[in-house]
Each structure stands twice: as C-alpha cells, then as structure tokens.
Amino acid sequence: MTTTEKIYRTMQELPEPMRHEVLDFAEFFKQKKSTDTPGSGNLAKRIQEHFKGLNAEDIVIPSRQFPRTLPQVED
C-alpha cells in the first residue's frame, strides 16, 4: 500500500473537521515547498554560495581609521 493510499484510508475514518485540519496542513507543506529556493535552508551553505569564487588576495583592506588605543577621558 502506498503512502497516498494510507493517507486516503485514514482520512476516510476521520470526522470532517479533522479532515479539514489535515488538508490545511498538507496545503501548508505544498506552499512551503513552492516558496523554497535552492539553498535557502542552510545559512552556511548560502554564505558559501554567495562568496564562491572570491579570492582573498584580491580584497583591499583599508588602513585603520581609529587609533589603536582610545584617548583617556577624565571625569
């Protein structure tokens, strides 16, 4: 018996309000699947994809704009 057949048989045994809840749940999953884009689930993977091909030697690092130590402020 396939999963679809099992779901169908189980649905037949449920009262109408519970069938509606199951339908809402299934439609939620269907909508979630259609809105997912490749790589949207894993943040690390999205970051890796974003910076793919970036060469660290090509990055210009600007000089410091602030002194290493902050001036002392007296009360």
Strand content: under 5%
- Uncertain segments are none
Number of domains: 1
Silhouette: elongated
Pfam family, one: DUF2281
Protein name: DUF2281 domain-containing protein
Domain DUF2281: 6-43
Organism: Pelodictyon phaeoclathratiforme (strain DSM 5477 / BU-1)
What this model shows, in words?
The chain has 75 residues and is mainly α. The protein has one domain. It is 52% helix and 0% strand. It is built from three helices and no strands. It starts with a helix and ends in a 25-residue tail after the last helix. The model has no long low-confidence stretch (mean pLDDT 82).
Q: How are the SSEs placed, and which strands pair?
A:
Elements: H1 3-13, H2 16-35, H3 43-50
In brief:
With 75 residues, the protein is mostly helical. It has three helices and no strands. The mean pLDDT is 82.
Question: Any descriptors?
Answer:
75 residues; mainly alpha; DUF2281 domain-containing protein
